[in-house]
Design a protein that fits this description.
Shape: rod-shaped
Keywords: Cell inner membrane, Cell membrane, Membrane, Protein transport, Translocation, Transmembrane, Transmembrane helix, Transport
Oligomer: single chain
Largest sheet: none
Pfam families: TatA_B_E
Function: Part of the twin-arginine translocation (Tat) system that transports large folded proteins containing a characteristic twin-arginine motif in their signal peptide across membranes. TatA could form the protein-conducting channel of the Tat system.
Distance between the termini: 112 Å
Mean pLDDT: 79
Subcellular location: Cell membrane
Protein name: Sec-independent protein translocase protein TatA
Radius of gyration: 37 Å
Strand content: under 5%
Low-confidence stretches: none
Length: 94
């Protein structure tokens, strides 16, 4: 008791068909199917856009498989570092 049996659901479906008619019910189900298809297409578009953004960001940052070169470049002067001290003079008096 308390739950719907197969017969309850069948009677409910027959009443719905009588109220709405076969053609209108068919059209409603077709509209529901079209809505589901457009929803799925929208979801796949969002996933594709997220994938494209991730690929673009990955290409900007470089491949994570490639190691990052952290060795200093001697040709580029560091603007923050103080200048090196002058070399000791080679003066014999000194």
């Amino acid at each position: 008791m308390g739950g719907f049996s197969f017969w309850h659901i069948l009677i409910f479906a027959v009443v719905l068909l009588l109220l709405f008619g076969g053609n209108r019910f068919s059209n409603m189900m077709g509209d529901v199917a079209k809505g589901l298809k457009s929803f799925k297409a929208g979801m796949s578009d969002d996933e594709e856009e997220e994938r494209r953004k991730a690929e673009l960001q990955r290409s900007r940052l470089g491949s994570p498989d490639r190691p990052i070169d952290v060795t200093p470049n001697p040709r580029v002067a560091d603007p923050v570092a103080p200048p090196p001290p002058p070399p000791p003079s080679q003066d014999p008096r000194g």
